[in-house]
Design a protein that fits this description.
The chain is an all-alpha fold and about 290 residues long. Helices cover about 70% and strands about 0% of the residues. It has eleven helices and no strands. It is elongated, with a radius of gyration of 23 Å. It is a multi-pass membrane protein. It is found in: Cell membrane. Keywords: Cell membrane, Membrane, Transmembrane, Transmembrane helix, Transport. Belongs to the binding-protein-dependent transport system permease family.
Length: about 290
């Protein structure tokens, strides 16, 4: 009888831990699918202007036009089409930034944690220097000096967001480097690169996966902030941050031009954070054994 009571409770706990993973995965997967299929599912060209059709209201407001489900912006461009292409920009920046920063941070962290000594001192010095640099101010300065472009935004964010990867990779590598399976690999005659690639990295991957989701969300938010300030993705590319910036002049009379991309940005970042929490629980990021 007690078992019949305990098992449903355990299942509820297990479902509660995985609910975030499922919801986050659905949100991120849906946005990613929309981004990939953007050229085929957009009802209009997101760059074509029609000044005779400026600030057409979305479908839930009186006077909406059937051809523009989410209305149009201040230049008459279809808002749904720009929102869909904005998902492509956000996902591209998030993924490429995580790849860039992950490669830098993971390499430094694993080398410092595995070899220790002077190598670890150099890695710690690099991490300390990076933590002393204000990300937003440096990004604003670099983009302001060199000019805004999609490639530059990705490079700047990737070169500024590697510290968390390095810290996590270093600490987890120091935990696993003296475990039995690493000692067995040494005894079997494996080379140092082979041990790093086959024994260390697979056993710290769960930690790095959680960090990747956090950094992806942060990169998307930073890009939106830079674009809002006019120093991110250059127009006419439909970045969600740029859409918010372009709509701020109409916020009192047409608040939906800010509300729509703002809600889309919130949902995407929320979904990524849920996915990260779910991965942490599923992969057991708190256990390196």
């Amino acid at each position: 009888m007690s078992g019949a009571v305990v098992m449903p409770a355990r299942r509820r706990v297990a479902w509660g831990k995985r609910a975030g993973l499922v919801i986050g995965g659905v949100i991120v997967g849906a946005v990613l699918l929309v981004a990939i299929l953007a050229p085929w599912i957009t009802p209009h060209d997101p760059f074509v202007q029609n000044l005779d059709n400026r600030l057409s209201v979305p479908f839930w407001m009186e006077g909406a036009k059937p051809g523009h489900l989410l209305g149009t912006d201040g230049l008459g461009r279809d808002y749904l089409s720009r929102l869909i292409y904005g998902a492509r920009i956000s996902m591209l920046i998030g993924l490429l930034t995580v790849v860039t920063s992950g490669l830098i941070g993971t390499t430094l962290g694993v080398l410092g944690g595995f070899f220790g000594g002077k190598v670890d001192d150099a890695v710690l010095f690099a991490i300390t220097c990076r933590l002393a640099i204000p990300v937003v101010l440096v990004a604003l300065a670099v983009v302001g000096l060199l000019g805004s472009s999609l490639t530059l935004v990705i490079l700047v964010l990737g070169l500024l967001l590697w510290d968390r990867f390095a810290v996590v990779a270093r600490s987890t590598t120091m935990q696993v480097r003296n475990l039995d399976y690493v000692s067995a690999a040494w005894a079997a005659g494996l080379s140092t690169p082979a041990i790093l690639l086959k024994e260390i990295l697979p056993n710290i991957a769960s930690h790095l996966a959680v960090v990747a989701t956090l950094e992806m969300a942060l990169a998307i938010l930073l890009e939106a902030a830079l674009s809002f300030l006019g120093l991110g993705v250059p127009p006419p590319l439909p970045s969600w941050g740029l859409m918010i910036a372009e709509g701020k002049d109409y916020m009192f009379f047409s608040p939906w031009v800010i509300f729509i991309p703002g809600v889309a940005l919130f949902i995407l970042v929320f979904g990524i954070n849920l996915l990260g929490d779910g991965l942490r629980d599923l992969l057991g990021a708190g256990d390196t054994r």
